[in-house]
């Protein structure tokens, strides 16, 4: 069976859920092989968990260049692995880094890349959700090795048995790839909430909050959700830009997206339209967000959100 390379998404060795989703998708095409780029000990430690989601092997590449420089060394590594192992496909998380690594590696190997896939079939055909989730399109790479960037939360991760034998990869990235250094900047102290682009539930607030995000945060905490914001709320300085959802913010695709006091402008939709279930709370019954919502509540968010929070907490 042909190998399918899966780029492991991890934060200092802690593997993100999106990787397990990719392994499940990879198993439909061939034998999942995880590519762990980072510290060798962390890669070894992650191997059993990767095996529990079907990884037959874990290739660990631990050159210091991967953590010291931006994506170019990792892209060279991936291109090298594709040339050497001729996998049936390469799956990466549709994160900013994942997309860029895949794009650079695809160019180096004369391959095609499909971004923002929401599903992957056994023949490496990818589905994409387009026009405010009104249509699904399918795409297939016709040149080289298919590189597919899959959105988090699109495929459900299923446990599977894999041997997860660890192989260390010795590959030295070129000096040309070592140009843009990584600079680590501490964001504000962690809120304990999940990462916005990975969260299964996102509760977002807009201009309708008037700057008071406390009911949005309370519902998010009751649901174990991440907090998002519209650009109007971010531009007003009510919430950090790192939480902005939309065309010029982050793209999210959770199981549940709650939009409170958000009108539903096209640029906001661009970042959340592939959410599985959308709930809108808006006091204007003609707000465009209701065209997209699966469930809508016409009402004041300062009354609706606390009631929802109370109901969730009472469970
Ligand atoms: P508004 O459109 O002002 O809507 C506020 C809503 O809250 C209204 O529907 C109102 O009825 C409702 N409301 C008010 N009070 C309450 C209450 N008490 N209870 C319940 N409902 C209430 N926007 C993004 O979000 N993300 C982007 O990435 C983004 N990128 C952009 C890029 C470009 C190039 C441009 C031109 C625009 C971009 N925008 C983006 C801005 C976008 O066009 C909208 O202006 C923005 O999304 C509006 O934010 P909003 O829905 O919070 O505010």
UniProtKB/TrEMBL annotation:
Every Electron transfer flavoprotein alpha/beta-subunit N-terminal domain range: 4-187
Required cofactor(s): FAD
UniProt keyword terms in alphabetical order: Electron transport, FAD, Flavoprotein, Transport
Listed InterPro entries: DHS-like_NAD/FAD-binding_dom, ETF_a/b_N, ETF_a/FixB, ETF_asu_C, ETF_asu_C_CS, Rossmann-like_a/b/a_fold
Family membership noted in the UniProt record: Belongs to the ETF alpha-subunit/FixB family.
Described function: The electron transfer flavoprotein serves as a specific electron acceptor for other dehydrogenases. It transfers the electrons to the main respiratory chain via ETF-ubiquinone oxidoreductase (ETF dehydrogenase).
Subunit structure and binding partners: Heterodimer of an alpha and a beta subunit.
Species of provenance: Brevibacterium salitolerans
Pfam families the record matches: ETF, ETF_alpha
Name of protein: Electron transfer flavoprotein subunit alpha/FixB family protein
